[in-house]
Amino acid sequence: MNKKVKxxxxxxxxxxxxxxxxxxxxxxxxxxxxxxxxxxxxxxxxKNLTLETPNHLVFCEHPHVYTLGKSGHPENLLLDxxxxxxxxxxxxxxxxxxxxxYHGPGQIxxxxxxxxxxxxxDIHLYLRTLEEAVILTLADYGITAGRYPGYTGVxxxxxxEKARKIxxxxxxxxxxxTMHGFAFNVNxxxxxxxxxxxxGIDDKDVTxxxxxxxxxxxxxxxxxxxxxxxxxxxxMELI
Length: 239
Prior knowledge:
Oligomer: single chain
Distance between the termini: 14 Å
Structural class: alpha/beta
Mean pLDDT: 93
Helix content: 25-40%
Number of helices: 6
Low-confidence stretches: none
Shape: globular
């Protein structure tokens, strides 16, 4: 039986606002798991009294913003405060894994806030499954994509000198509850990546679906394909 997952599209939304809302959902889910654990330990019928933990899949776009993960290096942002203002961009140090990345209009940002106890408790499989959903979506547009050994994300021509990244991943997981997620370049302004060392990788290119196909895409169509692939791979029923 497929696990029910609430799908939400926040549209174009401020990064801080989205981060705050993610944290609220994440904290509520972790707290519920804690209560369920107490019930199981302190009552002979505890398992019958536990409540099902919620699962969410959020899509959105952000105004221009750079985010730096916990293991990232601040020097990978190549702009000072004035430079950020000139680019109309903001900058946040956040609590996901990974280094620095860019979010902006024309990019599908996905925030799965899932209790992996409802799916599978394997963070590497979780990351690979998100990557696979993007790989399948790109295949829908006739683009062959894959993985780059030693790195997360989705890449084109990963086996040669033309390797370029089209989707970045960075997640947080606590008590098997996830937050943050992926950033898939669809109609993204790639010039903004010139102001950072993307994900700390200084010798590889970044690309977008628009650049690869030579035309702008209907981002709503791409979202629909992507969310369907995520649902199928994770055996979700989106509601």
